[in-house]
Request: fold
Amino acid sequence: MNTQIPGRVIVTGGGSGLGAAIVDAIRDAGGTPFVFDRDIGNVSGAKALEVDVSNRESVEAAVKEAAETLGGLDGVVTAAGIDRCGKLADVPAAEWEKVIGVNLLGTVSVVRAALPYLKESKGRAITIASTLGLRALPDATAYCASKFGVIGFSRALAAETGGAIGVTTIIPGGMKTHFFDDRDEQYKPQDDSKLNDPANVAQAVVFALSQPFGSEVRELLICPAEEGSWP
Reply:
């Protein structure tokens, strides 16, 4: 298959976890990642901006700056994500809504702001969902709502922009990252050995970014063989 290098790619949440693994994988494949994150202190080997993706105005300004710095954009990867576990009645409304603001509205804002550049380069939007965007669990209403929303948004976007840009949704299961660190003990994975290495998911992202224009990988579900969030 005639694949290509990933090119110039914004990675949200690129300062840690899956996002950082994606940055490394893009760079290793010959691409040029540009990190958006609230904490860019640990970013090295890539340009970075401190961005809260839940703030649409900040996203719009950051995407414009990144595109001007890179001379255009070939892709965006929306890896920024947060969670607030607990029963709906127990999670403060502001915290619940913050999950939607980062995971869903942040995804939409980044893609919307990048669209003109992606259309010019015939680039790709890679959205990061979750197996909990396909399977609902108790005490996860905010996260499930946000990730079900990412999948619905991405499918509609693919239908809307077919032939203009590529759209791929990555659907990962649990990964060995610090994502679970601030959870109450009852919501942490009981066996980390059954979680996936984020580098494996990052390789799937690079695969999607490297497709020749006109060849679409619409969705990729990547999960560890023994982890229980899927099926």
Notes: The beta strands are 8-12, 32-37, 47-50, 75-78, 124-128, 166-172, 219-222. The chain has a mean pLDDT of 92. The CA atoms of residues 38 and 52 lie 6 Å apart.
